[in-house]
TrEMBL record, chain A:
Start and end residues of each ABC transporter domain: 7-242, 244-495
CDD domains: ABC_Carb_Monos_I, ABC_Carb_Monos_II
Top-level lineage group: Bacteria
Gene3D superfamilies: P-loop containing nucleotide triphosphate hydrolases (3.40.50.300)
Protein name: Ribose import ATP-binding protein RbsA
Family matches, as SMART domains: AAA (SM00382)
From TrEMBL, chains C, D:
Name of the protein: Ribose ABC transporter permease
Keywords from the named record: Cell inner membrane, Cell membrane, Membrane, Transmembrane, Transmembrane helix, Transport
Membrane topology: Multi-pass membrane protein
Pfam families: BPD_transp_2
InterPro entries the UniProt entry points to: ABC_transp_permease
Keyword ATP-binding: no
Localization (cell): Cell membrane
Organism: Glutamicibacter nicotianae
Length: 504, 289, 322, 322
């Protein structure tokens, strides 16, 4: 790929304290090409791209732009070089509008006075590229996670950069938004923009990538063409074969429902009734904004509902009371680990232990030894990659953080698992660990309700699929008969909604 | 420049004042410092910012920092007793100035009489109103001894004037800015009030600002302290009278007495520094001194 | 895409209005109650009084709004008001500089104090609470040192700030002008937007290339300048700069901003809200004085009303969300 | 490019120790400076003085640590200290209840006040700043109402809190005992750990089944009880409960907690740090008195030292991070 590289990371290294995270890695970005970074959770992908984004400076090695060595000490410098970055974790100001967020740091102005019309125009143009028709004056905090992710993408697109970095932009998106994003990427390719793309969805790599750089443990492993076989990619990435990506072991479901929801309504949720029996995994599918998150939060006690009831094992639960739900055996893995799942400054052990702290305490005293032992155990099972169990969870990679949230409820012995995009940002190997834990829970008589935008996961791991559309359950499919088309036709059963979300 | 030696420090003493955020006490300190300089005493001044506990801390420090004697202007009469315990224990001579210190055994108490002064102030206002009318009282920091004692004096003084009615009594915390707002509001509520009795000059001056043109004409104001600004207001005719304490004199005499006490000489147990009613008649004697 | 894009606007949305103006409801109820309780409340002169009395805290709170929007807090405003007033008077009355310099000097003192606080927290990495607490003490100490604990007469240009402009008292004129200015800067300029961004999500602001440190320094300078203005209004009304001027006012100023709907965790705040917050406080004080409530009980009532006023605001906002 | 740098460090990690004890370094430097400046500093009696003097603020700050760890702030502690001291004395001296009830009554008053503040913010959804600011005013007002603005003599059991226990002053004994208790509760019990979780990320804590509201109320009750204890120590030392007792102490208590390394945005804080923070403040005050620094300049110096002490802490932590 020789000398026409737009941007080169040349033998860069990076350590955090005593831990070497990137070890002499070389990656090239070419004009009009998509360079994929592939690696397990914690392999160092985000750290690598943060060197280009001006967040971290490499300890050793060089960064070359157009063949010339450059320094990128901060984000301004990165932007000045024509680099735009979509970070893995959302970086939006919730209290500000979509337009303000998209133009953050570079509002159109004259003598310091903001030109609001121009600001809105920039935002609208960026949103149009993604085919989004949201009101640009909506505060970002009112949007769902997927929409926020799209705003983040729009923000980067509006920079008109020469190099665009996309760190797991598709993790929170459903098929149709991903398709939109990819068409934008293709347009940019044609315009000669060089891109770096990170994703744990292997199918996306062949679709959009040109070549793949594989990292393992912070070391460069290989560069291969994007059409390399998936199994080969997995082997390069994890250093071993993975037998089954979706190892679902179905169990004969029990008679009595473990979780039953009756006529639940609130806000956009309309008269939802569903039952999940012991041993079952039920998937919730639907388009972005269909109300899956809202439903799961209502069942978990995280939000109020105006009518209807939730019962576990036939016992009715108080509305809007997470503690009561937890005691009844409900475990909730929320949509956004950063804002809803984790106390970032607390240790891995503490984060895993929150749901068991009170129940294992003796006369008010925390069982410190036991808590740590339990956390250590589940961390090993899930192969959480961390400095130590006492390291702040902030220092873990995104996928490993996600595993910790999951581990919390496994440790707590939750009988009813409510999962909202449970494997968002989790690598293929670790997904299998999570799926095996799901099997274990159902085998021991628990049940799982799982909202997922990942079709393979829905098809591979569930026993039944409930499809939501505009706050209703539009229909139910047995997993064997669920195909992408069948699900989509139920999901879009309300056309008006589809138009409003701008996903057509 | 203090505490150089470890012994034989008959030359150093501590003055603990309640607060220096008030010109009255600044004058008192200046009087004390000038006299200390003249006598060759190394005087260290600490300011409790009107907090009894801070003062207790400062007194405890004074007991161990090599001072040969202590002058105290107590934040509060009652608590001073406990605060002074370490000083008493250390056997240092104590002179109380301006405010009493309860039953503590002290060498001398140098003060003007707040109760008597309050009575004089009330009389001065009543007289200027020809013994009748509605008046407003401005109180000092709630719970401060000066507030309670002057209040007592006001009551005594007003008792003789049956036709004077106190329509409102509110605190402005001895503070000029606060008095400005409080009086503005009170005059709104009581437009027919013709007199304001303030527990110090600072509040009286705030009241005068609030009254604007009415000060000294439609509404008479009496203050307390005899600060420079207070005298100026008497000269201008906006303040009917102020009860002049002589803070510099209080400071000066307390140092003189402490110096004697340190040397082991006999001192007077009670030194009354005169309190004068200063009004247009005698202002010439005070102003511009 | 040539569409009209945005959602249809549905006339005047009363609920949304309440949501944005929760404290206003509290204020209106308060005024109604006072109107019923005493005929002295709703009179021209009394309203002017309230206007004058609210001006000091409100002007101070305008500046504070910038700091709070940027997720900081400025405890030093009371002391800065005093030092600025003292400095502006000292320079003329004692040091003999020309009178015309008085107000500029006062404002410069305020800006300088704000700059120091801002720099301590931006470059020295001190939490703003600590940086401004340190300044509270240092600046009050300097005021006492300069004045030797005595009041200084104000220069004639500062005195003028306490006078009338025709029928309207100057403090009210300044209140209105500085309020409009503050609202403009906060909502329409890059300075204001950057403050919102930094307060709303510092990390996102930094990653978007916003100069977070400079923004922090700027909001403190703004706060310092408004505090200085407020101090000079106060000195103008008293015709004298007091060493104890405005002490303890910081809590009132912060309360005004928060009653006005700002969040201490940053990213939210409005100048109009702040004004309403300051009015709530001023009206309570005025009303309790009018009703001659005893000084001790006044404090009890003021505290309760603060809680209730903010409570209303919280209630409104919740109702609208769901 | 061989990586020698990655060798993990073993044994006593001095840098990590500094990182966790930044303010301690500030304190040690402060003490060294005073030791060199005056022979009076490092004497038995003076150290006992400092111990007594630090006790009030430190005990108050221990309680405050819980609130700050839970991402709240409690401005009412000074007033609560006064009301509790007043209540405990009033009940015995004026209302004639048996002396043994004095301290329990004082503590109950503190707990009740804390409960009200906590409930206002947990159930009434008021920001803790506002809820506790309202309480600051209300509680001080009630103290004045009860006492009619006059000091009340303390009961003999409260007086005893200001006396000596053998050679050791009681305030120091209480300081040590309550410090150990606070550290135990904060680090070893569910109450403490919950406070950290709520302060670190309220939403995540709630979704993990932690009863966030109850936690909020609990930390305020704890703060109230410690404030009450502190108020009674103070009253014991003064042999009288003052209506103005401990006013303004809230800022000192908060400063002690923050100097001690806690973050006002919650989730971080240690009792030992808080003690160091309180000591920094007490040692500065004591030292400046010993050196007879002029009263006005004292304020300037105190402010500067607060900034420097916290600055040290920030510096240490930064050094270790990278
Ligand atoms: N600021 C930090 N301090 C300490 N360790 C860190 C820090 N940032 C990252 N790490 C560590 O560096 C390693 C690489 O992290 P990185 O975020 O680059 O992984 P990643 O490949 O992006 O993983 P994922 O797929 O989960 O996003 C991880 O082990 C992580 O714990
Ligand atoms: N806090 C909020 N305030 C206002 N609207 C919200 C809020 N949270 C969600 N919504 C809206 O509610 C609708 C349902 O969102 P929800 O998150 O439940 O959808 P979903 O099916 O989980 O989809 P996804 O997670 O992919 O966005 C969306 O239109 C979303 O914009
Ligand atoms: O005598 C003084 C002055 O009157 C002062 O104004 C307040 O405190 C008193 O003790
Ligand atoms: Mg990553
Ligand atoms: Mg969702």
């Amino acid at each position: 790929m020789g000398n026409d590289a737009l941007l080169v990371l040349d033998k860069v290294c990076k350590s955090f304290g005593p831990v070497q995270v990137i070890d002499e890695v070389t990656v090239e970005v070419h004009a009009g090409k998509v360079s994929v970074l592939l690696g397990e959770n914690g392999a160092g992908k985000s750290t690598l791209i943060k060197m280009i984004a001006g967040v971290h400076e490499p300890d050793a090695g060089r960064i070359l732009m157009d063949g010339k060595a450059v320094k990128i000490p901060n984000t301004k410098a990165s932007e000045a070089l024509g680099i735009a970055t979509i970070h893995q974790e959302l970086n939006l100001v919730p209290s500000m509008t979509i337009a303000e967020n998209i133009t953050l740091g570079r509002v159109p102005r004259k003598f310091g006075i903001i030109n609001r019309r121009a600001m809105r125009q920039i935002a609208r143009d960026a949103m149009d590229k993604l085919g989004l028709k949201l009101d640009v004056d909506t505060p970002v905090g009112e949007l769902g996670l997927a929409q926020q992710q799209l705003v983040e993408i729009a923000k980067a697109l509006s920079l008109d950069a020469r190099v665009l970095i996309l760190d797991e932009p598709t993790a929170a998106l459903t098929k149709s938004e991903i398709a939109h994003l990819f068409s934008v990427v293709n347009t940019l390719k044609a315009q000669g923009v060089g891109m770096v793309f990170i994703s744990h969805h292997l199918d996306e790599i062949a679709e959009i990538g040109d070549f793949v750089n594989v990292l393992r443990d912070g070391k460069f492993i290989a560069t291969v063409p994007a059409d390399t076989e998936e199994n080969e990619l997995v082997r390069l990435m994890v250093g071993r074969d993975i037998d089954a990506q979706f190892p679902r072991v179905a169990t004969e479901p029990g008679e009595q429902p473990l979780l039953s929801v009756k006529n639940l309504s609130d806000g956009m949720l309309k008269d939802i009734s569903l039952e999940v029996r012991p041993g079952e995994v039920v998937a919730l599918a639907g388009l972005m904004g269909a109300g899956r998150t809202e439903l799961i939060r209502a069942i978990a006690g995280a939000d109020k509902y105006s009518s209807g009831s939730v019962a576990v094992n036939g016992k009715k639960l108080a509305s809007f009371d997470v503690a009561a739900a937890t005691r009844a055996g409900i475990g909730h893995v929320p949509e956004d680990r950063k804002t809803q799942g984790l106390v970032l400054d607390a240790s891995v052990a503490e984060n895993i232990g929150y749901a068991t702290m009170a129940s294992t305490a003796k006369s008010g005293l925390v069982d410190r030894k036991g808590q740590k032992a339990r956390a250590q155990q589940v961390a090993e099972r899930l192969r959480i990659r961390m400095g130590s169990i006492d390291a702040p969870i902030r220092s873990l990679s995104g996928g490993n953080q996600q595993k910790a949230v999951f581990g919390r409820w496994f440790t707590a012995g939750a009988k009813v698992l409510l999962l909202d995009e449970p494997t968002r940002g989790v690598d293929v190997g670790a997904k299998v660990e999570i799926y095996e834990l799901i099997n274990e829970i159902t085998a021991s008589g628990g049940c799982v309700l799982m909202a997922s935008s990942e079709l393979p996961e829905v098809l591979g791991m569930s026993d039944r699929v409930l499809v939501m559309s505009q706050g209703r359950i539009a229909g139910e499919l047995a997993t064997e008969e669920a195909t992408q088309d069948a699900i989509m036709s139920l999901a879009v059963s309300n056309v008006h909604r589809e138009e409003e979300m701008g996903t057509k | 420049a203090c505490n150089r030696g470890t012994e034989a420090e008959a030359g150093s003493a501590t003055l603990a004042v309640s607060t220096l955020n008030n010109p009255f006490f600044v004058d008192l300190r200046d009087g004390a410092e000038a006299e200390a300089e003249a006598q060759g005493i190394d005087l260290s001044v600490v300011d409790a910012q009107n907090d009894s506990a801070t003062q207790a801390n400062q007194l405890a420090t004074a007991a161990t920092n090599g001072s040969a004697g202590l002058i105290i202007n107590a934040v509060d009469t009652e608590t001073a007793e406990a605060g002074l315990a370490p000083v008493v224990e250390a056997g240092l001579p104590i002179v109380a100035v301006d405010r009493a210190v309860g039953d503590t055994k002290i060498a001398s108490f140098v003060a003007s009489d707040n109760v008597a002064g309050g009575e004089q102030a009330a009389k001065a206002l009543a007289e200027s109103l020809d013994g009748k009318g509605k008046i407003i009282v401005l109180e000092g920091v709630p719970g401060a001894s000066a507030t309670n004692e002057r209040g007592e004096g006001f009551d005594k003084g007003l008792a003789e004037y049956k036709d004077i009615e106190v329509v409102s009594s509110q605190t402005a915390n001895f503070d000029r800015a606060e008095a400005l707002d409080v009086v503005t509001n009170l005059m709104q509520a009581n437009p027919d009030a013709t007199g304001i009795l303030a527990m110090n000059d600072e509040m009286a001056l705030g009241a005068i600002q609030a009254l604007g043109d009415k000060a000294g004409k439609d509404v008479k104001v009496v203050g307390f302290d005899g600060t420079e600004d207070g005298f100026k207001a008497v000269e201008d005719g906006t303040l009917v009278a102020t009860i002049a304490q002589n803070p510099a004199e209080l400071g000066k005499q307390s140092v003189q007495i402490l110096a004697k006490a340190i040397k082991g000489e006999e001192v007077e147990a009670n030194v009354q520094v005169a309190v004068d009613t200063v009004d247009e008649k005698n202002i010439a004697e005070y102003a511009g001194e | 895409m040539s569409s009209v894009a945005t959602a249809p606007k549905k006339g005047f949305d009363f609920k949304a209005f309440l949501a944005n103006n929760g404290a206003l409801v509290g204020l209106v109820i308060l005024c109604l109650a006072l109107f019923i309780a005493t005929p002295r409340f709703l009179t021209g002169p009394n309203l002017l009084n309230i206007g004058i009395q609210v001006s000091t805290i409100a002007v101070m709170a305008f500046g504070m709004t910038f700091v709070i929007v940027a997720a900081g807090i400025d405890l030093s405003v009371g002391s800065v008001a005093a030092l600025s007033a003292m400095g502006s008077s000292y320079a003329i009355t004692t040091a003999g500089l020309p009178d015309g310099l008085s107000i500029p000097i006062g404002l410069a003192v305020g800006a300088l104090c704000g700059w120091v606080t801002g720099a301590m927290s931006a470059y020295g990495k001190l939490p703003t609470f600590i940086a401004s607490l340190a300044m509270l003490t240092v600046v009050r100490g300097l005021t006492l040192v300069i004045s030797d604990g005595r009041p200084i007469s104000t220069s004639s240009s500062v005195s003028w700030l306490g006078d009338d402009l025709g029928p309207i008292p100057m403090p009210i004129v300044i209140l209105v002008v500085s309020g409009l200015l503050a609202a403009f800067v906060l909502n329409r300029t890059v300075i204001g937007k950057n403050a919102f961004a930094v307060g709303g999500n510092t990390e996102a602001a930094r990653l978007s290339g916003i100069p977070v440190k400079r923004v922090l320094v700027t909001v403190f300078v703004i706060s310092g300048v408004f505090a200085a203005l407020s101090g000079m209004i106060l000195a103008g009304r008293l015709d004298s700069a007091q060493p104890t001027l405005a002490s303890g006012y910081e809590l009132d100023a912060i309360a005004a901003v928060v009653i006005g709907g700002a969040s201490l965790s940053g990213g939210v705040g409005r100048i109009s809200g702040t004004l309403i917050g300051a009015l709530v406080l001023a009206v309570i004080r005025n009303g309790l004085n009018l009703l001659s409530v005893s000084a001790f009980w006044q404090q009890v009532v003021i505290g309760a009303v603060i809680a209730i006023a903010v409570g209303f605001d919280v209630l409104r906002r919740k109702n609208v969300k769901h």
